[in-house]
């Protein structure tokens, strides 16, 4: 099988074209594990916020910008990205890392299977995480509001998939970006 690479510039142009054609009045946020995609989108358009996705050092990667939580924070700050979306493991194991991300002036989201456990989400929420990406918003919300672990599956089978809880501060920041038409 031949190896090939998608030319980033062309790829980003295609994505932007489709988003501009189809987004309508919806709020859009771009996110990517590829730092070069984040940069390309940032250069090409100032109005849609961008989040850098990172494994936060949980998996070995070749690109130093994605090699650790510290490097992801540096990258996001240096290029005026809205923030990072990191694997939940570092935040669950050391919740103070959430404050470190936020002290750097960027938003902090997490993703991963640990976010299917309400207690793990609760730890992150207590430290001020802006949002958690979960498989079952309904099950996690129920677990957070009742203080009990839900009895229904939290793997997306019996609930709505998506992101739980963007807080008011994040909403204001996103509204400001929309009004100003630029990045943070």
UniProtKB/TrEMBL annotation:
The keyword Cell cycle does not apply. It holds the Pfam family GDPD. InterPro entries: GDPD, GP_PDE_dom, PLC-like_Pdiesterase_TIM-brl. SUPFAM superfamilies: PLC-like phosphodiesterases. Keywords: Hydrolase. GO terms for biological process: glycerophospholipid catabolic process. GO terms for molecular function: glycerophosphocholine phosphodiesterase activity. The keyword Nucleus does not apply. Residues 165-176 have a biased composition (Basic and acidic residues). Residues 145-184 are annotated as: Disordered. Residues 1-144 form the GP-PDE domain. This is Glycerophosphodiester phosphodiesterase GDE1. It comes from Fusarium oxysporum f. sp. cubense (strain race 1) (Panama disease fungus).
